[in-house]
Amino acid sequence: MSRVLITGATGLIGRHLLRRLIAEPSVSEIIALTRRKLPEMDKVTNLVEADLTDLLRPLKTPLDMAFCCLGSTMREAGSREAFIHVDYTLVVDTAIASQRLGAKHLLVVSAHGASSRSPFFYNRVKGKMEETLRQKQWPRLTLIRPSLLLGERGRKRGAESLFAPLFKVLPGNWRAVAADDVAAVMMREAFSASSRRVTVIESGEIPRSVP
Predict the structure, then answer these.
(1) Measured by CB atoms within 10 angstroms of the end CB, which terminus of the chain is less buried, N or C?
(2) 164: Cβ–Cβ under 8 A, 6 or more apart, which residues?
(3) Residues 120-175 pLDDT 10s
(4) What is the count of structural domains for the chain?
(5) How far apart are CA 50 and CA 120, in angstroms?
(6) How many CA atoms lie within 13 A of 173 on its CB side?
(7) What span, in angstroms and rounded, lies between the C-alpha atoms of 70 and 124?
(8) What is the pLDDT of residue 151?
(9) What Rg do the C-alpha atoms of the chain give, in angstroms?
(10) Please, what sign has the CA dihedral across residues 197, 109, 83, 15?
């Protein structure tokens, strides 16, 4: 039986992942750290705080694996500094705390085009986040790089709504992917055996469910 941690459980991918984790028989407890309180759910221990770092630092529950679905946009964050806090600092803090608590596998949602050398700020931050996680020498690290995400959000993202029809027909790694398909591939990787220390799954490699 596995005890797991998830950050970003109220987000688009996180909501689907949480539902799948609850249904997974081999998961005994899910520690969900959120800024907004979750409804009562089986197997879920929900800890709530405005800044997730304040929850991660004192956490003492032993873990087997951790999932990080944190992610924002410049518009949502409001500034470059706030974006870095969510998409870099909180992700790295999740990794540090999880490793301290004994987790052997970390699974993180990154983004298509993530590279520390990218000319684009968003992709550069994602790339630096990935590099930092690699340096932590995880026994097993899985990085998922989805393109534009499809799914029902609590709040519409204007640009994503505008470009979604185009991204649905683009080839390879550019093609839009359903958030639940990302959650499904995270579950597949989490509960399958692998000897690879670092696994990178590009958007085009994420199996698509039938519409």
Answers:
(1) C
(2) 148, 150, 176
(3) 999 999 999 999 999 999 999 999 999 989 877 555 555 555 554 544 444 456 68
(4) 1
(5) 29
(6) 10
(7) 16
(8) 77
(9) 16
(10) negative
Which domain CATH number covers 11?
3.40.50.720
Q: What is the pTM of this model?
A: 0.90
Length of the chain in terms of residues written: 211
Does residue 181 sit in helix, strand or coil? helix
List strand residue ranges (DSSP E) for the chain, in order. Answer: 2-7, 27-34, 44-48, 65-68, 105-109, 140-145, 149-150, 177-178, 198-202
Tokens 């790295």 sit on residue: 92
Range of the domain at 176: 2-202
- How far is it, in rounded angstroms, from Cα 180 to Cα 196? 24
State the sign of the Cα–Cα–Cα–Cα dihedral 112, 118, 120, 123: positive
- The answer to whether 176 and 117 have CB atoms below 8 angstroms apart is no
